[in-house]
Structure formats: structure tokens, C-alpha cells
């Protein structure tokens, strides 16, 4: 796929990850230039000394702009300065926030970062399970490195001629999510993987690399991203993605946002489980949980099994947000939707029944344990099971309003019974109700 792209693609070409042999056979592309308007007192020699890599670089500018005398320039004339000659000085980034097991490898030292810590070119950020780190770039752009990822800060530069920033990251494993502020030429932003380069001048996009399949995925949420792999190229607009592997790229639409099957249901059980409505084309689903809708304070992330629910380990009670996406068989993560939910433990466990005989009477004591925070009220139900496997009988006992974690009955006739307990409590302005699984009780003669 070939096209005549603007300077967006030029950044990708400069950072191309294609093998040297493949590059040598690729067609030559026009040199990217920056227009400079001559001001009083400017000379080519002074411009080269102040803004270019070497003082003698003025000779190329003189030749390509057909300047007769490098010491005399017409005021107001526009010179085309080759970008590859312009000097870019070191720039810095900083740690805007992190959570979980995050390691910053910098200056030969590997350690947990600190909030506000300066990050320089060639540093590597690594995250463990349910860990996140947010990197703030000098122009207000942000990069989030989610869980189980390794990202190298491969370029942090600022052009001397106009202060334009030029940044590049390399996703060595896992993912990076970027929200890039529009950039002044000749600055740019790129994310590399071992098989692709994604270049922009300002947009919102994600890049991932799967080491096992040696495949990268770029997903564009806003703006446009140029993706190159070897000699193959694609330009992805918003709501499009590019799957790249072995020097080939494939442009695909992003999957729409999936939906929860029960979006209003509070999370009351031991594990946090979200049932998802099946979405055509989705292989699995991804969820991220944070304390804010913008996912700045994210602390947990999980992928579902193919077609299965999202399952998270136990977490503290509170109000949270879930960002939900679907993943295609090509590894592209689709559009996201965000849900708010309440995590408030409410359940019944430790169910048991014992029989005690006193004064020729049998007493049956049913016990349970409340699971959750705050006062709970209980409801006890008991019914007789059908002996022939048919429909069970009506409720024999339906006792609400219990405050003790026990209930006693006496003189039940022989037979097979089932019983269960409901726990109800008010949390976060809601009434939470949860039933235990039915338990069986057999009474002989």
C-alpha cells in the first residue's frame, strides 16, 4: 500500500525499523524541510552555528537553496532547511504517577520510581501485573504504560531552532497508550515496536507488541497515525487499527465498544465479575478499573478468556469505574466504554445445620456468617424437596428481619429439605441483597 503522505509519514521513515537490506531497495523519499524566514543580521554561517549539527552544514543549505553568498541573505526570504541537519538538544520527561510494581531502569540503576522523578532518553519503564505508570512529556503529552509491559524512552529531543519537541518510545513488550499534544514542525512523536513504527504529530492512540506472535497493533482513537513495517505502510484514521507483522500491515476497523450484561448490578461477591453481552468479532474482552472516570488512578486490569466474563480479585469497598474494550483475533483493542459501579461486599457464607435433641424433641439450628461491612438483616427460607424429583413444595418457612446469624426450628417431619439465607444491607445509598446457595437437610425417622 503506497501513498503520497505529508510530513506525518516522514517521521516514520526516519525512525523505520525495517532491515537495512530492505531500506536500500526502497524508493527515495523527498527530504523533509523546515521553512525559515530570514531576519535582519542572519547569515547561513550563523544559522548553521546556532541551529545545525555542524557549522559546515551551511554548505548544503547554500547549495539546495541556491544562495550565492552565504554571508548575505535577503531579509524576508524563506529558506528550506533540511530537517536532518537541524540540531536537537536533550529533553526531559517526568513520572506523573504510578501504581503497583513499576521499575525505572535509568543510568545503570533499576528501582521503583518516585512521583515527579525526571526521566531521560534511553530509560526503560517496566510494569508488573495490575501496575501502571504515567509519563508526562515536556509539551503536555502523556503516555500510560499499562500492566505487564516494557517500554523504552528511545528519543527525547527539542529542536534548537524553534523549540519543537521530538519524542519516540519503543514498546519492547506489552502496550503503551499515548495522548499527544499537536506538535510544531519539525517535531513529532513515534512509537516503535520490533516490527513497526507508528508516527504522529498529535493524536490519541495505543500501540502494543506481542512477543510470542511477533505482531504489533496500533489503534487510533483520535486523529491519524502513520504506520510503517518494512516497505509496507498504512495511514489509520480515528476508529481504525493496523496489525503489523513480518513487514506487512493490515488496516482494519476497530471493534465497537462492548456492553455489560448487568450494568447496574453492584459487585457484592468474593470476586469482582462482569458478565459481558456477546459482541460480534470479539475474541476476548479487556477491563481496567480505576477510581476516576479518566483512568488516571487505574489499579487493576484483566483480560477475559475467549467469550468469558471479566474476573478481578477482591478489592476494597468503594465507588469505581470500569473501562471496557473488546479485542479482535488480530490483537486490535477496540473502542472503549466506561461504567461506574459499586463494590460493596454482601454475602452469606459458612452455612451449616446441626440437630439437638432435648426432652424428646428435635431442634434444628441453622447457622451462617455474614460477609461484608456494616449491619445486615437476614431472611431465612426453608422448603421441602419433591421426593420424585418433580417440583419442590411451597415455602414452609419464610422469616425476614433476622438480626442474628442463626435460626432454630423444631419437630420437622422426616424428609428432604432445602434452605437458604438472604443478606440485606444499605451501602453507598443502595439496598444490597444477596442469597446464599440452597443447602440440603435430610431428616430420618
UniProtKB/TrEMBL annotation:
Annotated LysM domain residues: 36-82
Xref: Gene3D superfamilies: 2.60.120.1440, Immunoglobulins, LysM domain
Signal peptide residues on this chain, from the entry's feature table: 1-22
Keyword field: Signal
Keyword Signal: yes
Pfam families, alphabetized: FecR, LysM
Residue ranges of domain FecR protein in the record: 124-225
InterPro entries, per the entry: FecR, Ig-like_fold, LysM, LysM_dom_sf, UCP029644
Record's protein name: Peptidoglycan-binding protein
Lineage summary: Bacteria, Pseudomonadati, Pseudomonadota, Alphaproteobacteria, Caulobacterales
